[in-house]
Sequence to fold (192 residues):
Amino acid sequence: MDLKTYLSSRRTIPSAQLSGPGPDRQQCSELLTLASRSPDHGKLVPWRFIVIYVEGLQKLGEFCVEREKSRALDEGRVLSEAEINKTATVFSNAPLVVVLVSTAQGHQKIPLWEQELAVGAVGMNLLHASKALGFSAQWLTGWMAYDDKVIGLLGVSEPERIAGFFHIGTAQQAPVERARPDITAITTDWPA
Ligand SMILES: Cc1cc2nc3c(=O)[nH]c(=O)nc-3n(C[C@H](O)[C@H](O)[C@H](O)COP(=O)(O)O)c2cc1C
Fold:
């Protein structure tokens, strides 16, 4: 597929529709190498990856269910079956999850914002690289990306932040199109 055709038809496959096979270790390394070939002002490399395969995903899923129950208890909320089920299964579909961690921090020359933009570019590239290797992926955050206990479990510490959980595997169904931005509505000429 040529690049223009790919870009004009690219779609995320929801993680619930992903299963094996997923990238093996060598493919994962290639994937992360491709994704890291991203614009990076100052060449600071303000990101790192945490790679989680099936065994780790099962542990993470179980931890998140317990954590969600404890959060709900603290907030005096009753969790629905659907909520528990959603959390219990979120890490059980794709056989590989790559956690993209922002390591952006204050710098004398490169603003934090630009470092964070570079991390976002790596995220987009991870989706492209997954496709290039024959897989599909979804970029998710959810409450887990902001929960101090989950963050701690994964060994992420201040000023690091989780930019996303990238669920990577094989699509079980073809994607349907979704509405896209009206480019004229978000584009102006200058001077007008
Ligand atoms: C930083 C970031 C976090 C996201 N987190 C979630 C999420 O937690 N849950 C969700 O349903 N979609 C989330 N999305 C959206 C999906 O990744 C994706 O945009 C959507 O499924 C459609 O994408 P597509 O335009 O690539 O087809 C997130 C997107 C970004 C950029």
Observations:
- The mean pLDDT is 97.
- The longest helix spans residues 54-74.
- DSSP finds six helices and five strands in the chain.
